[in-house]
What we know:
This protein is α/β, with parallel strands linked by helices. The chain has two domains: 5-115, Tetrapyrrole methylase, N-terminal domain (Cobalt-precorrin-4 Transmethylase, domain 1, 3-Layer(aba) Sandwich); 118-252, 2-Layer Sandwich (Methyltransferase, Cobalt-precorrin-4 Transmethylase, Domain 2), CATH 3.30.950.10. It has ten helices and twelve strands. The strands form three sheets. A five-stranded parallel β-sheet has the order 3-2-4-1-5, with helices on both faces. A five-stranded mixed β-sheet has the order 6-7-12-10-11, sandwiched between helices.
Amino acid sequence: MFLMVLYLIGLGLWDEKDISVKGLEIAKKCDLIYLENYTSVMKGTTSEKLEKLFGKKIKVLSRKEVEQDKEFLKQAKSKEVALLIGGDPTVATTHIEMIIEAKKEKIKTKVIHASSIHSAISESGLFIYKFGKSCSVPFQQKGFSPESFYHVIIENQKAGSHTIVFLDLKPEENKFMTINEGLKTLLEIGERKKKEINDDTIAVGFARIGSDNQIIKAGKIKDLINFDFGDPMHILVIPGKLHFMEEEALNLKS
């Protein structure tokens, strides 16, 4: 027999206004509300604004509290608990693992979906069904400079597929990788490899998607690498083989 319910509620792309009516109604009736703010950071809002919206206190969880302590999961055995998540709740593997663990503990889960960068990138004109495996560029540091993300892009390009390239973030340090930094890292690795990615490679930069001042800009890397995309959040796409309609759409974003 299942106990109470753990609701995983997507907040959408940018601010507190992006939550669905269903998500808002459910959160308001829950006994406890938590905010997971590290897999996807909502730069357009604050926990205070969310508290005003829900009319309830919200506890912001650290990465350790989400992945290790999991007090919110224990609370869901006896209370109705809402876990607020930027974007859509089922995009991050962390939340899939959470759902599996909850069901093992006989805790019922309910996902309330929301808008996600995985669908919003199609505003660039790139066809969503042509995206392959995504990857992430981590902050490079001494003794830690992985290249696996580069190889994901190359394999996708060989298949004619587009690649979503997530850019590293460390919210606890207020540190967010920019499109410019991500492109620089790709070029540095390209120099060491066969230059499959170089100055003339087409890329698309996305900044603050869902906000009133969002930017979607396409062009060759040499034309984007010094462009000022402004404040976070940033994300990058390296297209594969382009359909003529995609080319036309990207030209409008150049």
